[in-house]
């Protein structure tokens, strides 16, 4: 009979852990691929995700192209102001709005319930959603930046700050999207609930026009959208790097969304 020594047992345990890690990684890659295929095979979702920011920035480009620096835009041209803020709005829509609606619909139709009954770990499912949303956000931001550059907007000088801000913003808005989806009773109410929260935030945060009210700016600075706007604006318009205060506020809201999601997320639809 073969006797397992402590060294042998430890080696076997490490091999099993490596096998489990490889298995989880394979599941994660598969889940990301599934989310990507689901997205790209849904023309309506794809078109609204990418076309809306493109249309908005193109219209703003036609209106503000060639304009001089203005006090109204805090010493920037209109396009210098709007390129990063519209890029930020596109990330908000892809990571918060769409995710909350999709999760509410999947729960209502029983997709989440069936998924929860499979061996797929919950963290793999949500990590797959997060990576998918980051990929979509990167494409959205690249399109907006590309169109902005056609209207003479200089590219940012601090790409590391843009990258960290984009990833942190996407992660925080995803967490908030899952948290809001946890509180939505049914899929029919999802778009209304999402817009009820998103619409006022976008406007008081200066996404579509600058806010010169100190009171409103102070209030919006404590909410997630304005800090994200400001952190995106800095590398584009002010040649600045990391905006740590704004990033900290954004991260805090991501933690709040994650805590709400952990405490309240349901895989099963609520009984009517």
Automatic annotation (TrEMBL):
Keywords: Antibiotic resistance, Cell membrane, Membrane, Transmembrane, Transmembrane helix, Transport
UniProt xrefs under InterPro entries: ABC-2_transporter, ABC2_TM, ABC2_TM_bact-type, ABC_2_transport
Bilayer topology annotation: Multi-pass membrane protein
A cellular-component GO term for this protein: ATP-binding cassette (ABC) transporter complex
Compartments it resides in: Cell membrane; Membrane
GO biological-process terms attached to the record: response to antibiotic
Regions that span the bilayer: 46-65, 85-104, 124-153, 159-180, 192-211, 247-265
GO molecular function: ABC-type transporter activity
Keyword Zinc-finger: no
A matching Pfam family: ABC2_membrane
Lineage: superkingdom: Bacteria
Keyword Transport appears in the UniProt entry: yes
Domain ABC transmembrane type-2 per the UniProt entry, residue ranges: 44-268
Family to which the UniProt record says this protein belongs: Belongs to the ABC-2 integral membrane protein family.
Protein name: Transport permease protein
Protein source organism: Streptomyces pristinaespiralis (strain ATCC 25486 / DSM 40338 / CBS 914.69 / JCM 4507 / KCC S-0507 / NBRC 13074 / NRRL 2958 / 5647)
């Amino acid at each position: 009979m073969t006797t397992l020594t402590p060294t042998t047992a430890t080696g076997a345990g490490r091999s099993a852990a490596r096998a489990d890690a490889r298995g989880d990684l394979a599941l994660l890659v598969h889940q990301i691929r599934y989310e990507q295929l689901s997205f790209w095979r849904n023309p309506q979702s794809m078109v609204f995700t990418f076309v809306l920011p493109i249309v908005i920035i193109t219209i703003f480009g036609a209106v503000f192209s060639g304009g001089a620096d203005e006090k109204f835009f805090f010493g920037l041209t209109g396009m210098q102001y709007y390129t990063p803020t519209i890029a930020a709005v596109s990330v908000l829509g892809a990571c918060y709005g769409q995710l909350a609606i999709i999760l509410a619909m999947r729960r209502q139709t029983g997709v989440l319930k069936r998924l929860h009954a499979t061996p797929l770990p919950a963290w793999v499912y949500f990590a797959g959603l997060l990576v998918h949303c980051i990929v979509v956000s990167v494409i959205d931001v690249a399109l907006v930046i590309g169109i902005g550059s056609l209207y003479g907007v200089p590219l940012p000088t601090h790409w590391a700050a843009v990258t960290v801000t984009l990833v942190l913003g996407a992660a925080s808005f995803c967490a908030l999207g899952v948290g809001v989806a946890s509180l939505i009773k049914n899929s029919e109410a999802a778009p209304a609930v999402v817009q009820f929260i998103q619409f006022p935030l976008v406007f008081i945060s200066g996404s579509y026009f600058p806010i010169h009210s100190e009171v409103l700016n102070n209030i919006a600075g404590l909410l997630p959208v304005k800090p994200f706007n400001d952190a995106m604006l800095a590398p584009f318009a002010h040649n600045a790097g990391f905006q740590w205060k704004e990033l900290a506020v954004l991260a805090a809201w991501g933690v709040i969304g994650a805590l709400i999601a952990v405490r309240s997320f349901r895989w099963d639809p609520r009984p009517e």
